Automatic annotation (TrEMBL):
It comes from the Eukaryota. Residues 372-426 form the LRRCT domain. InterPro entries: Cys-rich_flank_reg_C, Leu-rich_rpt, Leu-rich_rpt_typical-subtyp, LRR_dom_sf, LRR_TM_domain-containing, LRRNT. Residues 42-74 form the LRRNT domain. Pfam families: LRR_8 (PF13855). It comes from Acyrthosiphon pisum (Pea aphid). This is Uncharacterized protein. One of its GO terms (cellular component) is extracellular region.
Length: 437
């Protein structure tokens, strides 16, 4: 049986976690042995070398040691003061995470990556260069890393990505570029990474994403663009991402969602658009996302939701619309969301809830409505009683306890406590059964 895309991603993540734990256990073992003399005669002073393991973590080094054994498979030089990467071409046996081994130059003071620094490292599978100080990467520096699967470049000062910078990394699975100073993602920047599944570009001051930026990434499953300065996204940017499972666009300056913006994302499971400046949701804005199950639109400036905005979201289970400026709910607004389990409408400006608004939400188990200026009237009473009748085994309002705001005499009265005795309602005969307590 074929697993859903998000389950594949979860399985891959679990495998990585298991390997990481193995690495940590290995490092713990090495640390516990650090008081014993090194067993390899070639091992530099202060470092620990056990067979194929070279461990020189937090040793105050300002350069890469000369006497690194050529046959090592584990190399950790993290948390030192290393400023330059000299050629490591003689380390032809260096491997990485697949065998629970890795090469680590993270958290040093490396300021530049020169062409040839990683020549002949054709077996290298994981390269950690995060937490350094380099701004530019010479084109071709990664060309010979034909086995590389993990490349971590986050928390540096990288300003630009040339179209040839990742050429040759045909097996790369994960690339992290978050927390840099990249202002623009150009057309074809990742075109050579046909096997890439995880790309992190978050918190990198990106203001523009051009059409073609993610061309040829048909296997990408996770794309993080959150925490940038993106205002507009060109139509077609995501068209080729046919395997994408999770898209993070939260904490940007996005103002509008074009009707074709998410075209092609037929396998998308989770979409995060929280903390932007979106003011309107138009008809068909999410029309192509039939597999979407989680949608975050909270903490925007949404006032108007057109009828049909959520059309075709037949798999949606969680919808966050909280912390917006929504004033009214359309009778057809949630039509078709038959699998919706959780709906968050709290912290808005909703005053009235038309009868029948949530009638189509047959799977609903949780509805958040608190912190709205609700007017308690016959329609609200009808709405509450529909909840009780439609979901007799569930407390849909749970403990968030929405309350009346108007009229004054009912202010702060819980919706759960209102009854027909609070009103003098004239209802048509076919609605009268809803009011029977």
């Amino acid at each position: 049986m074929t697993l859903p895309m998000h389950q594949d991603a979860a399985a891959a993540a679990a495998a990585v976690l298991r390997r990481t734990r193995m690495i940590l256990l290995l490092l713990l073992l090495m640390f516990s042995l650090s008081s014993f003399p090194s067993v390899t005669a070639e091992c530099p002073e202060k470092c620990l070398c056990i067979e194929e393991i070279f461990f020189c973590h937090k040793k105050g080094l300002d350069r890469i040691p000369d006497r690194i054994p050529p046959a090592i498979k584990v190399l950790d030089l993290s948390y030192n003061e290393i400023m330059d990467i000299e050629s490591l071409a003689h380390l032809t046996e260096l491997e990485t995470l697949i065998e629970s081994y890795f090469r680590n130059l993270s958290n040093n003071n490396i300021s530049e990556l020169k062409h040839g620094a990683f020549a002949n490292l054709s077996k290298l599978q994981s390269l950690l260069l995060n937490g350094n100080k380099f701004e530019n990467i010479e084109t071709g520096v990664f060309n010979n890393l034909t086995s590389l699967e993990f490349l971590l470049l986050h928390e540096n000062n990288i300003h630009k990505l040339d179209s040839e910078i990742f050429k040759g990394l045909t097996k790369l699975y994960k690339l992290t570029l978050n927390n840099n100073n990249i202002s623009e993602v150009k057309n074809g920047a990742f075109a050579n990474l046909s096997k890439l599944q995880i790309l992190n570009l978050s918190n990198s001051n990106i203001s523009e994403v051009k059409n073609g930026a993610f061309a040829n990434l048909s296997k990408l499953q996770t794309l993080l663009l959150n925490g940038n300065k993106i205002e507009n996204i060109e139509t077609g940017v995501f068209n080729n991402l046919t395997s994408l499972d999770s898209l993070s666009l939260h904490d940007n300056n996005i103002h509008k969602l074009d009707s074709e913006m998410f075209k092609g994302l037929t396998r998308l499971f989770k979409l995060m658009l929280s903390n932007n400046n979106i003011s309107e949701l138009k008809h068909g804005g999410f029309a192509n996302l039939s597999e979407l199950q989680i949608l975050y639109l909270d903490n925007n400036k949404i006032e108007n939701i057109e009828t049909g905005a959520f059309n075709n979201l037949t798999s949606l289970k969680v919808l966050h619309l909280d912390y917006n400026n929504i004033h009214k709910l359309d009778l057809e607004m949630f039509k078709g969301l038959r699998k919706l389990d959780k709906l968050f409408l709290d912290h808005n400006m909703i005053r009235h809830i038309p009868p029948g608004t949530i009638d189509s939400l047959t799977s609903l188990s949780l509805l958040w409505l608190d912190h709205n200026p609700l007017t308690c009237d016959c329609n609200i009473l009808l709405f509450v009683n529909v909840l009780k009748k439609s979901y007799p085994q569930r407390d849909v309002l749970w403990d968030n306890d929405p309350s009346c705001h108007f009229p004054v005499e009912m202010k702060e009265k819980s919706l759960k406590e209102i009854t027909k005795n609070d009103f003098n309602c004239n209802v048509v005969e076919n609605e009268l059964f809803y009011l029977i307590m």
